[in-house]
Every structure is written in structure tokens, then in C-alpha cells.
Amino acid sequence: MSATNGQNKYPVGDRQDENWQQGCAIEVAIEDLSDTGDGVGRYEGRVVFVPDAVPGDRLLVRLVRVKPQYANGKLLEVLERSPNRIRPHCIVADKCGGCQWQSVAYSAQLQAKQNLVTQAIARIGGIENPPVETILPSPSPFGYRNKATYPLSRSSSGKVQAGYYEKNSHHLVNINQCPVQDPRLNPLLAEVKQDIQDRGWSIYNETEHRGNLRHLALQIGRRTGQILLTLVSANRKLMDIETQAEEWLSRYPDLVGVCLNYNPDRTNAILGEETRCVAGQPYFVDEFAGVQLQLRSDTFFQVNPETAELLLESIASRLELQGTERLVDAYCGIGTFTLPLAKRVKQAIGLEINPAAIAIAQENAALNGLTNVSFHGGSVEKLLPQLENLGLPAGEKPDIVLLDPPRKGCDRSVLDTLIQIAPQRIVYISCKPATLARDLKILCDSGIYRLSFLQPADFFPQTSHVEAVAFLVAEG
Ligand SMILES: C[S@@+](CC[C@H](N)C(=O)[O-])C[C@H]1O[C@@H](n2cnc3c(N)ncnc32)[C@H](O)[C@@H]1O
């Protein structure tokens, strides 16, 4: 990499350090991708992060934020195109903040995710040459998402808009289709938007905290095709919503329910606490890994169920389940993993903080006739130390603990409890390699656990997000 005058378009100093300044243009060869989605290059031993870059590109970059050892740059010109640079599927890929890697060939996305997991475990987890298996790709790199939640706004000409926010902003990019969503949702997006316009419903303005409709959420059962539509409103009432909802139900044969969520708060959180069904039913049904699940709009469900199913199958076969095991699924949500695994173990116990998710998990256990599984509402911090009160026979410990915490990872107290209980095997599913690595370090430094291997999986193609599962075994 060398300094360049960029055909005299940009200021460039003569000496090496003069180029390491805000506003200078430098040439950077992109070697990898970062967890925020930026391309990563090096300039005289220092790191340069560049959005919209592809590994293998040689770029002219303007430095916009400069620190002694690293800088953030803006892409000015592609000097040499990487063979991995492709034409985005999406017509608004350059603006929309939903995806970061539409210009990156899928094989290069997978390689970058493999590197992200390996580097985090080595650097933060302190594990040299971590045993990372080849990443499990998403069978569908597009059209994989079963859920779309679009913020709503009104354009300057008064048109109702729905889409995703621009990168680093709250400015909406209006869309009528999205290539990562299940294509069966696309027709509803454009038409429902038009109906909202025709009804004259007011649209929420977040700056002035005025108006009604905030979000449109669409969910679909991958196998059943059932669709649930949820509108999020700053008011409990929406004029004629019942009539419009019935009209949608008769227009779309696969639509099974329309819900109205009430969110009156000044907040970035999408949903408020109250959801009521205005037509049809408040849930849709899908099949996942051999179980039937009732799913709602106010509880977490995997957005790429096709890949989640493959990952679950790989977990189950790695565990070589005999049907004699007692399993605890901490952070179990609606029982997405607990219920299919309950069919293959002696006893399964699910722990989850969201009461709505626990209620659905219990309903789903009954729906599938599973009697060896129980679900308990409360924090893992509180429930994990008292498994004997939750149905685990006195004097026994779980053979396997499955962890699937949110991005921030496990609370330190959860890891301490695990070290104390010392189950033979821990399976840690994570959507953030950095917090996974931090927690693995604590578990492995205890001297009790050894990292057997890691399995990354691509739940979120076209984005920089990556899922990874760590398998730990108790030594001795
Ligand atoms: C990444 S989701 C995983 C859910 C589930 N395993 C699935 O695949 O559908 C994390 C879940 O942890 C729950 N959660 C977050 N903090 C928690 C805590 N301290 N104790 C128990 N559950 C928690 C969330 O409500 C959410 O359902």
C-alpha cells in the first residue's frame, strides 16, 4: 500500500506521517472484513477500516477519523476490483443500512465470518489456534428471513413509506421488496402501505413524538406459509382497523391474523408491552425441527429457521444423544431448541426471562404432546442455582447445559454457577463472537472446561452478523 495523490484530486502529504491525517487520501488493499461490516486494510502497519469494501479490492480511501494506530476511511475510488466484488441484488443496497455485504460474493462472506470467529476466540478468548470447524452456510443466501419489521414514515410529499434506515441514521429508505426477506412477504409490503395511505392513518413522527403508526411487522411460517401482520401504534385505538384487518384477511388467503401492538413510549424499542388481536388469530404456526410451533409477534424466534434447523441437527448429532440425558436450556425463548431436543433426551428444563415466551413454550410443549419438558419464567441468574426446585431430581446435575444468551453474553454469576454445578457438557450458542470469547475464557480458565470445538453458522447472509456454537467438556 502506498500514498497516492489520487490524480491530484485529494490532499496528500510528502512524508509518510503527513498522510496519516484526516482528509488525506491513501491507497489501501483490503484484506478482510470486520465485525461491523467494514473492509480491513493496512497502511504502513496501521489498520484502516473502510465501509463498502471487499477483500481483494485496492482502493483509494479518504481518511475521515484518524487515531495513532487505526483510522476510518471513506471509499473514493475502486482502483482494482476484487474478484469477490459483485453487483448487489438489491437496488437500494448502497443506501439501506439493513445489509452491509451485498457487494461481497457469498463465498467471501463465509470466509470473513470464519475469520471473525477464529480471531475473536484467539484474541479475546486467549485460545491459540482455536478448533474452529468450517462455517455452516445458509442454504438460501437470499430470501431467508421469516420476519420483516419496517419502520413507517411519511415523505415530504405526504406518501406513506416503509423500509429500513440508512446506515448510521434514522432516515428511512423506502422499499417495496427486500431480497433477504421471504419473497412471499413482498406483495403485502407494497399493498398494505397503500392501504395505510388510503385510510389516512397518521404516521408517527419520532422527533415530535406525534402521530400513530410506528412499524409494520410481517412474519411467515417457512413450511406452512402462514402469515401474521402486526401494526405498532402509539395509540391504543386505530380508526376502522377491524374493518381493514378483515379486508386483509379475505384478500390474502395465507394471512391468519392481524395484531395491534401499543407502544406509546419515546423509545427505539419496536414493540410496546400490549398486543391485541384485531382479526383472525394472534399467532401463526410453523414446523421447526420436527415440532409444531405457535409463534407470535412479541417473542423471539430465529429469523433464518432453515439454517437454525441445520445447526440444531449438527448440535444433536455431535452430542450423540442416547435418550438418557437431563438437559437444561438456559435462555430458551419459546423453546425453539428445547422442544426438538426434548424428543431425544430423558428430561429437558427451559429457563427464560420473558413471561410471554414461557407461556408460548408451555403451550407448544402441550401441542406436541411432550411431557418430559418444563419451562420456568425468571432470569437464568436466579433460576440456574435452584434446579432442584425446577424438577431436577435431588442429588443429580444436568448432563448438558445449552446456553443461548442475547448479544451481551452471560452474566458473570451465570458462569460462576455453571463452574460450580460442572455439567459434563456445555453447548454455548452465540450471535456475538466477542462476548462468546470473553465467556469461554472464564469457563476454560476455571480449569474445569476444555473447548472441544466451535461451529460457526451463517444465520444472516449479506450482513456481518455471525452465529457460533462452542462445545465444552468437563475435564477429568
Ligand atoms: C438469543 S435469544 C434465544 C432464544 C431461543 N434459544 C431461540 O433460539 O429461540 C435469547 C433469549 O434470552 C432471553 N433472556 C435475555 N436475558 C435473560 C436472562 N437474564 N435470563 C433468562 N432469559 C433471558 C431473551 O428473552 C431471549 O428469549
Automatic annotation (TrEMBL):
Gene that this sequence comes from: rlmD
Enzyme class name: transferase
The TRAM domain covers 19-77
For this protein, the record's PANTHER family field holds: RNA M5U METHYLTRANSFERASE (PTHR11061), TRNA (URACIL(54)-C(5))-METHYLTRANSFERASE (PTHR11061:SF30)
Protein's name according to its UniProt entry? 23S rRNA (Uracil(1939)-C(5))-methyltransferase RlmD
- Protein origin, superkingdom: Bacteria
Give the species this sequence originates from.
Laspinema palackyanum D2a
InterPro entries, per this entry?
A: MeTrfase_TrmA_AS (IPR030390), NA-bd_OB-fold (IPR012340), SAM-dependent_MTases_sf (IPR029063), TRAM_dom (IPR002792), U5_MeTrfase_fam (IPR010280)
What are its E.C. numbers?
Answer: 2.1.1.190
| Keywords associated with the record | Methyltransferase, S-adenosyl-L-methionine, Transferase
Listed binding positions for S-adenosyl-L-methionine are: 302, 331, 352, 404
